[in-house]
Amino acid sequence: MTARRLLVIGAGAHARAVADLAQACGWTLAGFLGAPGGPSGRQVIGSDDDLAALVRDRRLDAAIVGVGNTALSRRAELFAGLRRLGVATPSLLHPSAVVSPSAKIGDGTVVFPNVVIGADAEVGANAVIYSGSVLEHDCRLGHHVYLSPAVILCGDVQVDEGAFVGAGAVVIPGVRIGRMARVDALVRVVTDVSDGMRMSVTPSITLGRS
C-alpha cells in the first residue's frame, strides 16, 4: 500500500503538533511550507508560494493548515487556497478522541488527543480542537474555530466562524459565541458573546482586614 503524503501549511509550533497528529492518524509527512528558519530538524520544503507547483508535480496527496492561533484570519485564507487548487483536506482525529457516531466533523479539522465530541455535535471545516476539550451534545462550531486545550462546551453551545476560545474556558449550555469573537483562557462564559467581542477574566478584588 502506498503511503499517504500529507503536507502541513505552516512551520511553527502548531504545525509540529499537527504533523505529530497526522502521523498518529497514519499519514506520512510530505513536509512543511513556511518561512526559512522553521522547525529545527523538520522538513521545510518551501514557502506558501510553492504550493501550486507541489500540487502540479504530485508531491502530496493532501494538505492541512498548520498555522496557529496567532494568525486566525490567515488560517481561513490558506484553507480557501487549498480548496481553489483542488487539494484534499482531510480531517485528523487522534485515536484517543471519543467522537459520537452522530457527530459531524468538517474537512481540514484537527482533533487532538483526549477530546470528547458528543451526540449530534457539528464542527465546521478547518477547525482546531486541542487536547482535553469537551464538546457535549448539540454543540455547533463554525468554520475556522479554534479551541485551546481543555475547553468545556456544556451542550447546545454555538461558536461561530473564526472565533477563538482560550485554554480552560467553560461555556454553559445555550450560549452563542459570535463570529471572530475571542474568549480568553479560564473565562466562565454565561452570556452570549457578540461578533468580534473579546471576553476576559474579570480580576477579583481581595479586601484586607480593617
Can you describe this structure?
It is a single chain. With 210 residues, this protein is α/β, with parallel strands linked by helices. It folds into two domains: 5-84, Rossmann fold; 91-202, Hexapeptide repeat proteins (UDP N-Acetylglucosamine Acyltransferase, domain 1, 3 Solenoid), CATH 2.160.10.10. It has three helices and 22 strands. The protein has helices at residues 13-24, 51-56, 72-84; strands spanning 5-9, 28-33, 44-46, 62-65, 92-93, 98-99, 104-105, 110-111, 116-117, 122-123, 128-129, 134-135, 140-141, 146-147, 152-153, 158-159, 164-165, 170-171, 176-177, 182-183, 188-189, 198-199. The chain has a seven-stranded parallel sheet with strand order 5-8-11-14-17-20-22, with helices on one face. Strand 1, helix 1 (13-24) and strand 2 (28-33) form a beta-alpha-beta unit. 39% of the residues are buried. Residues 203-210 have low confidence and may be disordered.
